[in-house]
Amino acid sequence: MTTATAIQQTTTQQAACKVSATVYCLVQNRLGALDRVLHAWTHRGIIPQQILSTRDERAGTLQIMVSCDIEDRRALDKLVKCLQKQVYVMDAYAEEDSASFEQAETETVKVPAKVAALFLPAYRKQTARS
Amino acid sequence: MTSQTECQADPAQCNPTETLNGAHIFLRSLIAEGVDTVFGLPGGVILSVYEALPEYPNLKHILVRHEQGAAHMAEGYARSTGKPGVCLATSGPGATNIVTGLADAYYDSIPLVAFTGNVPTTLLANDAFQEADIVGITRPVTKHNIIVRRVEDLAQAIKEAFHIATTGRPGPVLVDIPKDVLLATATFDYGAAKIDLPGYRVQETFTDNDLEATLELLKNARRPVLLAGGGVVSGGAHKEVLAFAERFKLPVACSLMGLGGFPANHPQYMGFTGMHGHYWANIAIANADVLLVVGNRLGERQTGNPDRFARNARIVHIDLDPVTLQRNVEALVPVQGDIRNVFGKLLAMTEDMTAYQDTLARRAEWYQSIDEWKGRRQPEETPEDLLTPQYVIERIFANMPEDGFITTEVGQHQMWSAQRFNLNRPRSFITSGGLGTMGFGFPAAIGVQAAHPGKTVVDIAGDGSFQMTLQELACARDYNLPVKVAIINNSHLGMVRQWQDKTWNRAPESRVTSPDYVKLADAYDCVGFLVTSPAEVDEAIQKAFAINDRPVIIDFRVREKSDVYPWVPAGGANEEMLTEELPSEVQ
């Protein structure tokens, strides 16, 4: 396969995606936890757009935010359920929000401190809801 | 210091503050978990475990010839007892050899705890001799896995592994222990080891509304069916499901993994469903107006084309695993919870059946339809002098004692066995459902036999499958495990040949040669019989069943080209199954 073909195929796959979403995940920060979470995307053939993670040393947790394009809402729901089932995952949920995804992509690369600012309010909102 | 023997005899007598090395901590932890049998093979990095092992004489070790065998034996032990199976392998190739067994256990929800050794922590990630990142390799095929890097963490890791493997939807857990962790010392206090898994919660989210909705659907049902899956067996819910099915007079079908979850001799039992399921059971599901799916993940081998599965039915899907619900088939009422608990509550809610008399009154008509479908299905006519695989398998089941166990390999013989299954207890049919592992049945049978001495254990095998793990004959002989291997020898990878023939009208590379199995049995100091005609079948089976001190192989030389019917071609609807004669019966 030539590089040109590969790029073309990647573009086509992305064009077929219907939902842009951000998945939030709070995991117990133990060895292997992050790998198991990220594997959920790999197994589905999804290349994340952006991955952010923040360690909370005091709580012993890792907060992970993954932005990606995914086939549809049902596929997104199944992805989240799969994450929720992982032994080290304490909470997982998704928000469909392509706008916030673009913002996160820009800001994180420049200022890692803003990762928490982007992530924690959304997490707090979710836990308050539940 | 408490002696090992005293400690083993009564774990409460173990000195709670003893300082032990990792190998002893490992073995003591197994005893504390109630483990009585470990299937394993020693190697460099776990020699310290084997050095300590003789000090624990009640912890039986079964020495295998290949680690894949150890994993499948542990599966057989677990599947037949409901207790977690335990296997042990060394690092590198020893560890990678158990991957198939882990995957098999994962897809069939089997509680398995696998232990592997690894190179010392100082050598990890150095491409050391016999190093493998087994935690990375097995991540997708385990419910959980962990590498223990400090001896102080070992007991907790083992405790968590058993907890995870056996609770919720069961599954395999791998614990990888580097060599230096096994050699280092720490204070051992298993009681003090705490499970620290705040994210791991076995939850039930079903509500009374879900149960009332289920009963409301049943109240108005004219053609209800209950489909029992492997969750009925693994969840220990067979009694509750039986009581509920009897109360509502529900016809019951079983998936491959659900066989034994409902008594096969029960008048409401329709049989096996799915790609090679019974004609009438598949047709009944296609015509059902209410379908209770219980402990079944509704995989494509079960549903055929999922968009057309039970399309006339309103579906109630009851399962402990939330991921299973609404995944492949949309249910009107998804009920997430422990099956035994759900049915316990449904039974309590229906002690007074006055409100359900109308639906019960309609049941005779529904059973009449099912009987008509059964009546239309004629058995194949077979020349009397031709040894067919179907006949051999029928005779094996006819001769099986009620307390016996059947294991199978994977392929045509597996489907014919599922169609002819006639036992009435859960955990009596041991087969590789999800992964479809050829080579599973024989080592699994050894595991079953190790757990159930004195019981009849028969591996119904294909000649292709048996050749994948037959080296375990030596293991079975060493421990005098009298497993019976019934080889349905058609000189082919039969299912492969069937698909090739029907799809492309030719079958390259599907023909396989075999050794002389009678001589092979003799070489392993086992017993072998050759059967070439129908007249010899019963006598050979009975002679094999009478042997109780070593494995027996029966080489049934059957017709080479028999096909499994019914057969739902991939992507088709179940009611469009291919049979010799019948058109679609969907009303």
Describe this structure in words.
With 130 residues, chain A is an alpha+beta fold. Chain A is built from five helices and four strands; from the N terminus they run H-E-H-E-E-H-E-H-H. Mean pLDDT of chain A is 72; it is low at 1-16 and 99-130. With 587 residues, chain B is of the alpha/beta class. In chain B, the strands form four sheets. A six-stranded parallel β-sheet of chain B has the order 3-2-4-5-7-6, sandwiched between helices. In chain B, strands 11-10-9-12-13-14 form a six-stranded parallel β-sheet, sandwiched between helices. The radius of gyration of chain B is 25 Å and the shape is globular. The termini of chain B are far apart. The interface between A and B is medium-sized, with 22 and 21 residues.
Which pair of chains forms the biggest interface, and how many residues does each contribute? Answer: A-B, 22 and 21 residues
| Strand order of the biggest β-sheet of chain A | 2-3-1-4
SSE pattern of chain A, N- to C-terminal: HEHEEHEHH
Instruction: Determine the mean pLDDT of chain B.
Output: 94
**Could you say which structural class the secondary elements and strand pairing of chain B correspond to?**
alpha/beta
Amount of helix of chain B: 25-40%
Cα radius of gyration of chain A in angstroms = 15 Å
For the termini of chain A, the CA-CA separation is 48 Å
Straight-line distance between termini of chain B: 75 Å
Number of strands of chain A: 4
**Low-pLDDT windows of residues of chain A:** 1-16, 99-130
Q: How many β-strands of chain B, per DSSP?
A: 20
Q: What can be said about the biggest beta sheet of chain B?
A: 6 strands, parallel
Q: Helix coverage percent of residues of chain A?
A: 40-55%
Question: What gross morphology of chain A would you assign?
Answer: globular
Q: Give the helix tally of chain A.
A: 5
